[in-house]
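ok so i was messing around last nite and threw this chain in just to see what happens. nothing serious, just curious
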Amino acid sequence: MTGSSASAPAIRVRGLRKAYKDVAVLRGVDLDVARGSIVALLGSNGAGKTTVVRILATLLRADGGTAVVNGFDVVTQAGDVRGSISLTGQFAAVDELLTGRENLVLIARLRHLKAPGAVADELLVRFALADAAARRVSTYSGGMRRRLDIAMSLIGNPPVIVLDEPTTGLDPQARLEVWRAVKELAAGGTTVLLTTQYLDEAEQLADRIAILHGGRILVNGTLAELTALLPPATVEYVEKQPTLEDVFLALVGHDPNLGDASRGDSNLGDADPGGSGAATPAAPTTNEDQS
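result:
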């Protein structure tokens, strides 16, 4: 890798457009992901996060714009892109009939690596799965399966890994296990593009956060830069800094089609960003959110 390419972003997207029939999903997405960093692509369901991921992974062709991964164009150099990137989808792609070690050895052999057993053993230790190496994956917890899935994605040492909503459906403890694994990836020099709809996940993991809404990137910056977009709120004598959730909802607005949000969850659509609607008292026997 030349000096100029080493200093270039690991992922560079310019003017990316994609439509499904008459529905425009991406309307000119621009995004840079620096090498060795974690960037969170944050957006509600249907915002186009997975569409971006599929284009970067050469699984889907864009209608316009350009995308470069590790210095390779996703259209004209698709083979080189596939050799540079690893995609972990929303659901763990593991064989439940095999053991954890057998899953890793299988992928190592498919990649024609020398000493596949040694590769598997190193990853089992790295992702704290050594004690469960000989167990069938069907006996693994959700967090263990996801860690195994990420470990399988790292076989061959791809410089870029894309995690598409990696903690969807996981319990809080399993989410923390995955978060720790993602942080270790970046600490080891791997570039991580993380798509998520969980605001706390972006806050915990990302060096930079890009908010995708309406087919475009609304803002892209550090957590401090994003929270600085809103003035701090003051209640009596206690100063409260705006959270990433406040920033997100103020930028994209509240979608009435999302229905009632779940109480106590940091998922998208949890709050009314304007705060101007009249409160609707809950019925005496229910625990519904106020509008």
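not much to say yet. The chain is about 30% helix and 25% strand.
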